[in-house]
Amino acid sequence: MKMVKLQKKNLNAFLAGLEKFGDLHGPVRRDTNDFAFQKVDAPEQIAHDCLRTILPPKKYFTKPVDTMFTFSEAEGYRAPDKDLHTKIILFGVHPCDIHGIKILDLVFGGQYRDEYYFARRRNAIVVGLDCMPDEYCFCRSTGTDFTEDGFDLFLSDIGSSYLVRVGTSLGDDIVLETSTLFQEIGDTDRRAYKRRSAQRINSFEVEIHLEDLPEIMDLEYESRIWQELGDKCLSCGTCSMVCPTCYCYDVVDQLNLDAKSGSRLRRWDSCLFKDYALVAGGHNFRADRGSRIKNRYFHKQRGFVAQFGRPSCVGCGRCIVSCPAAISLVDVLTKLRSRGNE
Ligand code: SF4
Ligand code: SF4
């Protein structure tokens, strides 16, 4: 893989020079500890100390509310004026979130390929940025603390510079376009990168073991843990909304007041919502909260492994930080594994 060096003092000049490749988006501080990916007018607006945005980058590719088409008596069906072809540069995406995007690629590229999703993916340049874990990160346990692909460029902090890995030919074009800002890496940079890598590995405070978790979960299918969690869970769906790999959506037709026109929307949905498994005729397959939270855990840690060979959790910690009922995925999985030993 091609690697070059970018001095930190040149970062904003580099980002400003990307204008011709698309609109620049990155994490922006909303409150003391709240960050959100959004379009920026100038690179200075980007918060480089952001570890975890409220919503992950999935919001760019599968929108919270997305118009699929509009319809009217006069004009029939019309494809909406979409942002499908807007080119964006997504700066500051950490390794766990890049893995989140890779998981969504698997899901939306399956049997029924989602062209809305892939149109947006094709138009997004991903510039990754390394990070230091906090007490909620467990991406090292999920094997998503490092990525070799899924980005065009990836920047790792090596002191006064970034070591830049070039992941695609488009990334290479970008470097060539702004080549005066880059330098070749030397021995000092190689050593600095290895020190940074070791420091990062040693900074993880949380470790969970996922090796035989699907089997453990099968054994604990009838565990009282699920009911205990159900008693705490508020069914608010926050954990699904903030998760970089949750992708469920609902499709609804919305009629305008003239009753002659409207639109078909798809909206993020959550398996924690009470009516998620409600079917015609009024039966709800998961009417109680315990069965719904069990379903979420089984889908992410059991069913997804069976289907795609990996869990659909990238260890970002968002669901733990955001849960108003203080339900921690790490605690749940640790408890499941230790049950019977207590
Ligand atoms: S965020 Fe917490 S309370 Fe809300 S649905 Fe998820 S587990 Fe339940
Ligand atoms: S389940 Fe929680 S920790 Fe895992 S990827 Fe989703 S939000 Fe992040």
Automatic annotation (TrEMBL):
PROSITE patterns xref list: 4FE4S_FER_1, 4FE4S_FER_2
Keywords for this protein: Iron, Iron-sulfur, Metal-binding
Source organism of the structure: candidate division TA06 bacterium SM23_40
GO MF annotation: an example: iron-sulfur cluster binding
Pfam families noted in UniProt: Fer4_22
Domain (4Fe-4S ferredoxin-type): residue spans on this chain: 223-254, 304-332
Manganese found in the keyword field: no
Record's protein name: 4Fe-4S ferredoxin-type domain-containing protein
Top-level taxon: Bacteria
Keyword Ribosomal protein found: no
